[in-house]
Design brief:
- The protein has 375 residues and is an alpha/beta fold.
- The protein has 2 domains: 137 residues, Rossmann fold, CATH 3.40.50.10350; 215 residues, Alpha-Beta Complex (Glycerate kinase, domain 2), CATH 3.90.1510.
- It has 14 helices and 13 strands.
- Helix 1 links the parallel strand 1 and strand 2.
- Helix 1 packs across helix 14 and helix 2 runs parallel beside helix 9.
- It is elongated, with a radius of gyration of 23 Å.
- It starts with a strand and ends with a helix.
């Protein structure tokens, strides 16, 4: 029997690689002869870039950048073992987690530090940059990032502006960076579908959680729209899915970096050659901390089952909390799902026992299959 292990993290207890280790331990309790292939996965959010770095055998590099409010901090990015690809998570420089709740204000924050990370990666001569843009504290359409890379933004009088969310409407002229012709290839992991501006855009949907008041949202949305109108692009372009990600950084990545926006899980699956690993596989075991109605709309399990179903490979899923009906489970393309909790327990106990729970539940599943289908 050949089993492919492709779980996400169990948030708060095990990262995806540790889940694979626990699953493998459960399989070994059944038989040492079962071939288990570990392909830890992520949904495009937290953990995605760490896995990309792990798959590439790369290393992390630390550098000083500005945080969303312009304070100097240490941030990390990754470089593959062949030094051809850099991995950047914008939240390490421009993320909401870097600010205290009372400091959150998307009128004042910008993505300058993200641009500094890109510049540091480019200085190493990389050919590709893969960037995740979740968890931002900003609403500047990526202008701060571009400013760090040498782009200039001028007001109506020709004076240079340091771009932030509150002054996007003041920008009347954009001067490209000398680096614009020297950019590497950019792939941006983007898992939201919001347009740049409007009722479903960056400001209305995400700015409130970044500290914006109702009045601020109106100003930020107007700024995004006003800025878009001086880019020279057709108005319909700004309704492109993903342009509103990270306060408009989705758009800024395309406009300033000529980036390709991709679903994070598909980017990761391509990177680890997921399809190639399916040859001869009898079963895929995936999983995540919670399987519920939201999972039905999620990217990870759907991405796995889409590929598995093409080859008639059954998919089983393990989780901490299981809150779907049999019909919903079938809708996801899963033949079996189980919680790793074997008795009622408090959250702290469940988190502490997650490894044993994954190991034991994997054992029960695989042991049953081997006894039912011994050949």
């Amino acid at each position: 029997m050949k089993i492919l292990l492709a779980p996400d993290k169990f948030r708060g207890s095990l990262d995806a690689r540790q889940v694979c280790e626990a699953m493998t331990a459960g399989i070994r309790l059944v038989s040492e002869s079962i071939e288990a292939i570990s392909l830890p996965m992520a949904d495009g959010g937290e953990g995605t870039l760490d896995l990309l770095l792990w798959y590439s055998g790369g290393r992390k590099i630390s550098t000083q950048v500005y945080d969303p409010l312009g304070r100097i901090i240490e941030a990390e990015f990754g470089v593959s073992s062949d030094n051809k690809t850099a991995f950047i998570e914008m939240a390490t420089a421009s993320g909401l987690s870097l600010l205290k709740p009372e400091e959150r204000n998307p009128l004042l924050t910008n993505t300058y530090g993200t641009g500094q990370l890109i510049k540091a990666a480019m200085a190493l001569g990389v050919e590709n940059i893969i960037m995740g843009i979740g968890g931002s504290a900003t609403n500047d359409a990526g202008t701060g990032m571009a400013y760090a890379l040498g782009w200039k933004f001028l007001d109506i009088g020709g004076q240079e502006i340091v771009p932030t969310g509150d002054n996007l409407s003041l920008i009347k002229n954009i001067i490209p960076s000398p680096l614009a012709s020297q950019l590497p290839r950019f792939q941006v992991a983007c898992d939201v579908t919001n347009p740049l501006y409007g009722k479903n855009g960056a400001a209305y949907i995400y700015a409130p959680q970044k500290g914006a008041s109702e009045r601020d949202v109106l100003q930020l949305d107007k700024g995004l729209k006003d800025f878009s109108q001086i880019t020279g692009l057709p108005e319909g372009n700004f309704q492109t899915a993903g342009f509103g990600a990270a306060g408009g950084l989705g758009f800024g990545s395309v406009f300033f970096l000529n980036a390709q926006l991709q679903e994070g899980v598909k980017l990761l699956m391509d990177f680890c050659h997921f399809k190639d690993k399916l040859k001869g596989v009898d079963l895929i075991i995936t999983g995540e901390g919670k399987i519920d109605q939201q999972t039905l709309q999620g990217k990870l399990i759907n991405g796995i089952t889409d590929e598995a179903n093409k080859l008639n490979i059954p998919v089983a899923a393990l989780c901490g909390t299981l809150s779907v009906s049999p019909q919903e489970m079938q809708q996801m393309g899963i033949i079996y799902a189980a919680s790793i909790l074997n008795h009622p327990q408090a959250l702290a106990e469940a988190l502490n026992n997650a490894y044993a729970g994954v190991r034991d539940t994997t054992f029960y599943l695989v042991n049953l299959l081997c006894r039912t289908y011994p050949n």
